[in-house]
Design brief:
Blueprint (H helix, E strand, L loop, with lengths): L4 E5 L7 E6 L12 E6 L8 E4 L3 E4 L6 E6 L4 E5 L4 E9 L8 E8 L1 H4 L6 H4 L1 E8 L5 E10 L8 E9 L4 E9 L5 E3 L14 E8 L5 E10 L6 E11 L11 E9 L2 H6 L6 E11 L2 E13 L4 E3 L3 E4 L1 H6 L1
Antiparallel strand pairs: 1-2, 2-3, 3-4, 5-6, 6-8, 7-8, 8-9, 9-10, 11-12, 12-13, 13-14, 15-16, 16-17, 17-18, 19-20, 20-21, 20-22
């Protein structure tokens, strides 16, 4: 199971921490959705309140059909430090409305609402749509990530995610530029995909550096067929200008990994046991903006991932540009 977790400190106080997780109570009707949130006012020593992101209504981008979707996990959180606003991106799915619409949602809340234990989930969070595709679409949206611009240049919120296209047999990284009112402008076609012409990508992360530049990292994987088979895994980044997301670079290769796989993984094309994730963050090194990248390299069977040597690299190629 993917018990995915995330957290962010509140910008208004050093003692408040907000966490998120794929909360399976939501699938059993015990919460209003499966994207859980948890608020602590004592640095995580205890939980002040918990709940789930409220339902989201809207229209699908591919055919305009109306949907009512419940949050479905895959959480990511970030904070707008100027006023402490918390942003939470998550999967949504129309399980009960009959359309099976698949949605990337974006929610926001304030420290005041999050710490008011008398409020309902729907009063704590405002929720908007980033992208939605109906059940009849060949497109499936997955693995969202949120990054807030704290540079002072804009107050934009950026969301990246993986777009799987069953008819094309591809997976690409898309990005959306959202404002504080949760109105999002999404790249709607493969021509404008972050990952360019790559066709097997996932696990994107988005950050904004102190100069307002938007930096996206992701994984590209390719299965080869020698004996034994192996995955060739490329770690990439790309830089965009703040605001309108005009590309400042083409995709830039950070590192290539090559890992053998067992027979089951080779047949199924399973990648979760090969490279679990890529993590990236922007920061300062000697007052110069830098991109830092870390990733986990795994190997093993379908059921058991046996950790190999973990890597934590300051990405020298990225440093050269950024």
């Amino acid at each position: 199971d993917q018990a995915i977790t995330t957290y962010t400190p509140s910008g208004s106080s050093t003692t408040y921490v907000i966490g998120g997780a794929s909360d399976y109570r939501g699938f059993y009707g015990l919460l209003s959705g499966a994207s859980g949130y948890y608020v602590s006012n004592n640095n995580g020593s205890s939980i002040l309140r918990e709940g789930a992101l409220p339902p989201l209504t809207g229209k699908a981008d591919d055919n305009g059909i109306s949907f009512t979707a419940l949050s479905a996990g895959e959480p990511s959180l970030d904070t707008y430090k100027k006023d402490g606003t918390i942003y939470y991106t998550s999967l949504y799915q129309d399980f009960i409305g009959g359309t099976d619409t698949n949605v990337i949602g974006l929610a926001k809340s304030s420290p005041t609402n999050l710490t008011n234990t008398s409020l309902s989930d729907s009063s704590v969070w405002k929720v908007g749509k980033v992208r939605a595709d109906s059940g009849s679409s060949s497109q499936f949206n997955d693995k969202p990530w949120v990054g807030v611009d704290n540079s002072g240049i804009t107050s934009n919120i950026y969301v990246t995610w993986t777009v799987y296209n069953s008819s094309a047999g591809s997976a690409k990284i898309w990005i959306s530029n959202c404002n504080p009112s949760l109105i999002c402008k999404t790249t709607h076609n493969d021509t404008n995909a972050v990952s360019g012409l790559q066709t097997n990508t996932q696990m994107s992360k988005v950050s904004v550096d102190s100069m307002g530049r938007v930096i996206v990292t992701w994984i590209e994987y390719n299965l080869t067929n020698p004996n034994p088979p192996y995955f060739s895994i490329n770690l990439w980044y790309r830089v965009f200008a703040s605001g309108g997301l005009n590309p400042l670079t083409n995709p830039v290769l950070i590192k290539t990994l090559t890992k053998p796989v067992d027979g089951y993984n080779a047949i199924q094309g399973n990648t979760f046991g090969i490279t679990e994730n890529i993590w990236s963050e922007v920061g300062l090194a000697g007052n110069i903006p830098r991109l830092f990248v870390a990733y986990t390299e795994c190997m093993g069977s379908y059921l058991y991932d046996i950790p190999s040597l973990p890597y934590a690299d300051s990405c020298s190629n990225a440093d050269t540009y950024i």
